[in-house]
User: Fold Autoinducer 2 import system permease protein LsrD from Nocardioides plantarum.
Amino acid sequence: MSTDTIERAVDQRTYASYARPLLWRVIATREFAVLALLVAVFLYSRSSIEGFDGPLTLYFLFGRSLPIMLLALPMTLVIITGEIDLSVASTMALTGAVLGIAFTEWDLPFVMAMVVAVGVGLACGLLNGILIAYVRLPSLAVTIGTLALFRGLAEGFLGTDTIKGFPEKWTDLAKQATSEGGSYPIVLIPFVVLAVAFGLLLHFSSFGRGVYEIGLNDEAARFTGVDIARTKLVLFMLTGAVAGLAGVYQALYAGVIRSDSAIHLELQVIAAVLLGGVSIFGGRGTLPGVIAGVLLIAVLNSAMRLDGVRDDVTDIIIGCLLVASVIAPTLLTWVSGLARGRVRRTTDHPSTATAPPTPSK
Assistant:
């Protein structure tokens, strides 16, 4: 391992920022900026867009965005390691197709059909994990390939057909509110449980520390005893399993299964994760920031839909936010470096005007 590599790894782990006041350390973060932007967009939408301040706004906002919220949880850990998974939306489509076929054609009990569908999602994640962690293929190339593979399998199973007729108790459960006339769907409860579980895994466990170490420097992580291959395999399997759960929920919430469901959803998931402060280069990010990023995209989608904005315009705005979230850290680092260099030059070369006078002979 070269000296430059070690210096970069050490530089990323310095604690100089902790010399600043606690309030400043909280405010001067990307996570706080995303949270502030979320509050500003929400308040502006409530005051300016007709219908956004209605009693069911939050209910539909959370209900429609729950798949993105679910997928963002494991995607956060994957991107922190420096990898990426573009096949999550196709995995959702495939698990939904398997759910419909297992229930209508294989005559499985609906609970068993859901288990089979989530198992298919887990198998998809296992395939990605083996190719990336053990065969050591680039995650971008692998998941682009499996994106097409899983979507093609879903289209092969369903074609142009749609599957309906799920048990009403399950479709009603997917749409049920926490109380009579409540503003929150009941499915937020399992999401909160999963979010807490992933938060504990990432921020309060040795496994999570290994995830950050892999993203900072995988060679250094190997020397500290982190099993890189196993960690990545577990993360991609978790991503596949959660995508299976999201596919089941999407089918129940919509009440219909089609092969083109969740198309382009992976872009919104990645945008939410990067907006939430996770570095695309790995080694940095927090789960609370990601959840704020997911909610920001959900609020934007809901507000622009109610305002009559076309979907392509919405995609353009989200794409611009994604580009800005990637460019902003590099730009801020460059500006900060220029400022430090200017201060250093001023210190090393004081002005002659402040120099002490030369004593006379």
In short: Residues 22-339 form a domain with the ABC transporter involved in vitamin B12 uptake, BtuC fold (CATH 1.10.3470). The longest helix spans residues 311-348. The chain has a mean pLDDT of 84. The chain has one domain: 22-339.
